[in-house]
Amino acid sequence: MRSINFNRNRTHVVNFLSWCRKHALLVGVFVLGLNSACAADWPRQVTDSRGVHQLASAPQRIVSTSVTLTGSLLAIDAPVVASGATTPNNRFADGQGFLRQWGEIAKQRNVARLYIGEANAEAVAAQMPDLILISATGGDSALALYDQLSTIAPTLIINYDDKSWQALLTQLGEITGHEQQAAARITEFNQQLAAAKTHMKLPPQPVSALVYTPAAHSANLWTRDSAQGQLMQQLGFTLAPLPAGLQASQSQGKRHDIVQLGGENLAAGLNGEALFLFAGDQKEADALSANPLLAHLPAVRNKRVYALGAETFRLDYYSATRVLQRLSTLFG
């Protein structure tokens, strides 16, 4: 029978436990260092149109009153607990009133619906947020409630109508402490964009990018400053300039991203050699092509009216990726 040296085994056990304690201490120091580094980034100062705001710590309960901003927050894994919504089950929103490109992700993360359409301060307060985000313009802006909302939690006004979705993502990353996630998403997309450009053969230029509303025979034309316009330009498209003297209407505050076209201005404003319909499927493209007032347009005559999908109404990481995939299919 084999003899057992208990003293030697006890020594091995002691050495092993000592090794475990040493490495556990090192891991603890490493984690503490990470936490200290993260904590060192706060408080942060953020400037918006109302001045300078100080955020004491990284937000843990963000309420987005803007359905447009919510997709970008989800893309960087920011802790969104609730979001404003639009009319449910329309061409670009799901049953919750969340935009289709990220509605399922919001469901998985248990994002609550605040309200449909008009903002409600009581609904926001009920979520006990530590940060509230408002869009500066657009139909989803809760700017009128700023004074009420700012008594609930730090409230920031975000402009999305004058920048690319990548710039918006970067801004939100800095506000929430999720800069690394924002940078990773942008890098991932830019790699896909660069690959797509190498094999895309573009149609005749310049082009027009728009949202078409068949029932009203009207359109919102995306400008060069819009996220949609900037994405098209990043892919090599040239946006057609508006004819001189065209009188376009304005609504929803002074906006930089759209020009509203209707009546006699509709045909004049859609002067691109190709028309790209955001927030629209083939049904909207067919309706535009069938409009007798637009039959003379070069894009209609030459059958260059392209639908980019109902989920592209507002651009964020998710919808921009779908636009890229659609354009690669059309012109790859």
UniProtKB/TrEMBL annotation:
Organism superkingdom: Bacteria
Cleaved signal peptide residues: 1-39
Family under the similarity heading: Belongs to the bacterial solute-binding protein 8 family.
Subunit comment: The complex is composed of two ATP-binding proteins (FepC), two transmembrane proteins (FepD and FepG) and a solute-binding protein (FepB).
Fe/B12 periplasmic-binding domain boundaries: 61-332
Keywords assigned: Ion transport, Iron, Iron transport, Periplasm, Signal, Transport
Protein's recorded name: Ferric enterobactin-binding periplasmic protein FepB
An annotated GO BP: iron coordination entity transport
One GO cellular component, as annotated: outer membrane-bounded periplasmic space
CDD domains: FhuD
InterPro entries: ABC_transptr_periplasmic_BD, Bact_iron-sidero_bind
Organism for this UniProt entry: Kosakonia cowanii JCM 10956 = DSM 18146
